């Protein structure tokens, strides 16, 4: 008995990390590892390349790296979670309780880690879903309690990531209307930097909730250590980067804290209620920024967007041809133009609805979703039938969350609008936001889609727009409970979309919000694609689409050929074809030769869609570093590839870039053919039709062959 007692005492004196269980959450390429410390708290002990021997994951950090830092207790920096308990206590401690891992299928491994406050019946579960092939981890947090009354959640992040490094370079994406997704890279200084939104809706308009972090400034497309993440949330977000230098407890480290913005969003959590945070999706690689993109694209196509493997429809939109001024015959006549271009679908944009206050401009009618009888006496169903008869699918524009004061809806339901009492009504784009916290408004918004589909079941596509943010924020439905308004609005938005997708799973939908104001994976799980910007000038679009390409796959990025810009039609076609091709153009003003070229490019896009939309992306020449741009897509078999090359504002003194390709099989031979040319047109690629080894194309590359400003070329590579 005495010997057994000695053994127990001796085992308790052993170094704790020899006994503590490691929680390894990993993919094929990288892992994040946790371990309980001597006080029972969960610490992150590793984030990096996956090790072949799990014993190699050791806690070598002298600094604290909490798995999910809490406020009000002994942690003195920015917390992931801060609460006020039912008794008013503002401190929170979370001890490790248990964890479990299960295989959802051959590719997805789920892990749950349960934490609890030792003094309060307050519980947190950290969730992780590891996608093995895609090398992506998705994480989120669920929070609950059984205290005797509400607990106030003052901060409630989705994750808390520790990066132990003396210096870190952050790349994030900023912008404004017409200049979305501009890239900016800089070294994080000691202190806190935040990417955040308080816009309520269109929340990604100024900052996209995506970023990359690297310990070195010289990271490239193909080399270098990168941690990258994006927050899947359609409401106000806040991604904090707290850079600590020479900190006594935390050492030299970076704390990344993504989640819902705490601004005006204290959440009263009821006993037994479960609150789930937005999902944070991240990856890690030592193979540069290009691998980050390929990881996210692969994940998005398979898991992140609606019907990711569905072929995309090319389309002709009527907006630039008609704006608000059209009638039934005008639209039917445009169908012939769509057929000439060879597209799959005609998309009817704004201006088709409202009768008492006709939608003849942006100042009236929004909210009254009945077809305008003067413009469309036979209704939307007639247009659908006419399009179908011509071999075209039919799509339609909606903006169901918004209302004009000059509308029947506003006259009947002024209480359905978000606006602060005792404040002047503030219009933006002459409209207001409907109160999606209200279940009756949710029913109405769902009813807009449901009514259209019931009356015209053959509608195949909807462009869901959202053209203003929330200001003077106040929900008449919530009354005095305004602290949760921003959160409840987003929850209401998702409830509507859940209903839409449950009833109409095969309906294609484009996500639009004055361009790219809603581009993030919280909404994209309901949409096939998005409108990245109202700016369709090709020179600007190259940079905009370049920025989106870091986190979003080409098949989701709608790119339309329009009248914007003085570039040639070929240039515009080549820019649009690198993403998801469409047209918004007056076909009747096009020459027969231009129509023929457009049809050729549409056919090429359709023929090569498996490569462009589902192949691996390799960015070759950056428009942020040169006056040129080039990118390529390679299919999974490495038998086909497509290369896009653009001159921007090149001048005679320019040093032309190297055009070294990537992703090919070095042992294969490839014939290179220039495409997207009119019949009889002269090729710009002087080595057209020649054969090169994959090794030569990747190691030596091609001589840059575009010599004039605003010229472009598309090359098709085929293994022989």
Automatic annotation (TrEMBL):
It comes from the Bacteria. Residues 40-269 form the Glycosyl hydrolase family 36 N-terminal domain. It holds the Pfam family Glyco_hydro_36N. The keyword Hydrolase applies. PROSITE patterns: ALPHA_GALACTOSIDASE. Residues 1-20 form the signal peptide. Keywords: Glycosidase, Hydrolase, Signal. Residues 629-715 form the Glycosyl hydrolase family 36 C-terminal domain. InterPro entries: Aldolase_TIM (IPR013785), Alpga-gal_N_sf (IPR038417), Alpha-glycosidase_related (IPR050985), GH (IPR017853), Glyco_hydro_27/36_CS (IPR000111), Glyco_hydro_36 (IPR002252), Glyco_hydro_36_C (IPR031705), Glyco_hydro_36_N (IPR031704). Gene3D superfamilies: Aldolase class I, alpha-galactosidase from lactobacil brevis, Golgi alpha-mannosidase II. It catalyses: Hydrolysis of terminal, non-reducing alpha-D-galactose residues in alpha-D-galactosides, including galactose oligosaccharides, galactomannans and galactolipids. GO terms for molecular function: alpha-galactosidase activity. Its EC number is 3.2.1.22. Belongs to the glycosyl hydrolase. This is Alpha-galactosidase. It comes from Mucilaginibacter lappiensis. The lineage of its organism: Bacteria, Pseudomonadati, Bacteroidota, Sphingobacteriia, Sphingobacteriales.
